[in-house]
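WARN no homologs supplied; continuing
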Amino acid sequence: MTLLNAIDPWLAGPRSAELLFPTLALPVLGLLLAPLLGARWARLLALASLVVGLVLALACTAALVAADAPLVYALGGWAAPLGVELRLDGPAALMLLLTAVLLLLIGLHAAGEFSVRAAGRRATLAFWTLLLGVWAGLDGLFLGRDLFNLYVAIEVLTFSAVPMVCLKGHAAQFQAAFQYLLFALLGSALYLLGAGLMLGVHGTLDIAQIRVALDAVATHPPDIGGDARAATLAAVALMSTGLLAKTALMPLHLWLPPAHGGAPAPASAVLSALVVKGSFFLLFRLWLDLVPDLPQLHVGLLLGGLGVFAILLGNLMALMQARLKLLVAYSTLAQIGYLFLLFPLASGASGGPAATAALIQVVSHALAKASLFLLAGRILVAFGHDRLPALDGFGRAMPATLLVILMAGLALVGLPPSGGYLVKSLYASAAADLGAWWWPPALELGGLLSAAYLARILSIALSPAPASGTGTGAAAGGGHILRAPITGLAAPALLAVCALLLGLLPPALFSVMDVARPGMGSATAVAGVMLSALTPSGFWRSAGPVLTVALVVVLFHSAGESAWGRRIASIGRGVAGFEGWLRQWRTAGALLLLFLLIQVWTSIG
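OK structure emitted
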């Protein structure tokens, strides 16, 4: 018997759904074993598990494509609602693969930094155990279909992510982690209230069964089924508001900048690329898979408006940051905003091109942002700090690092053939189909602001390093910097290249997202977008405004202090003051309550 014959029943046969159990059990088992094995063996266990996890994710995806139908596995043979069912469809397979690839690459990159010799036993054991916890929570979110089990998964994710913020043990990091924990718990309370209301209305927490009940209610007269529908939408609004806090959608973002700013670079990469995407993926499930008529609800306008607000304010704040890690953190807030344009632009039962755009944005942003955080950590190690005003000329000392930063940044800007370009084009197509002309300009403006902060980094990197003072030479000790090994560029470079060339993948690969979601048409949509992008006119239509903005920023930076510079700085201080007010506890709490009330009103009214 050949190996192919041995594994065929699991890839294309009736036993293929059984792959879901080891996919979820592997990180859970690793999480339980790591503290027992100690720091040195925990690192080896985590890395070996991540390799096996990637193989399992690939096998699950292959089985899903072969079946061309969702894979469903009932734990212990007990079907829902009495038992727990694991379910894999196209979007879940995409997220499983993305998580496995990113965690493996980040883990390999962090293997030197978080070893017993480099970080000590306590930090080493904590990092690898928490990494396994994040992985377990994410896989539980992607495979779960029961609202309470999804709550358990997102809490595992939260309680694994929060300690990552304070691994170095500094006071400011503990404060940031505590702030993150409190706001996340507030979101958890709202989610749990919504789940309890849903159980009271329908007697089940299984998403598929609730959807069947809502479809049945839709056939009844309003005076019969109206109360159940209203209560369901109120429950979804409660859960959605809690998840907005965990996703850090502006202006509910008070925890994210300090958390990312103080966490170790690998931890920031995990938080930005994956952790905030877990709560968004659950929002994706709630509104697209559970609510039968999202396009008719005005709540999409609220979520889309918040997305545009995040795109503009997040990019503006990134442009003004004095630290590289904070610049990348605020860029994350802006990129999160793109995800929420899904809700006003979704069409059809599966979301249409907008759903394809949102899923591609999850992948593209995760790849690019993980790369940028790892590179920021590399610069921090080399120079002892990441303060941009004191990094003049760092690109001359680290040209390969600068090149990878530019590749990852261009993917965020949205130049073809990057994933960012696919996202903007697919959203524009969805907006054109709906006649919603006002969304694409926000996308274009966001891309130009991203180009502005990327050009600022480039200007600083290529500026002449000062002979003395506070520049790179002084910070590194008289012109000498700590040389980071070139092997540390392998993972960030691979991630950046994948983000930048995402659009060159064969369109058929994107059809994986369509399994069990008829009507998305991802392969056709991506092929149409890239066909127009790979022409000279299409490329320059995208690149021309970006290059213009970049040139203006470079010239502005090279001109030094001027009257215009002081005016712009004054405006920047005003914007920063407004953003700081938004990150106060009273403001964030009031806004959380306000958004809950608006969601309930727009959903039920």
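The beta strands are 71-74, 85-88.
OK
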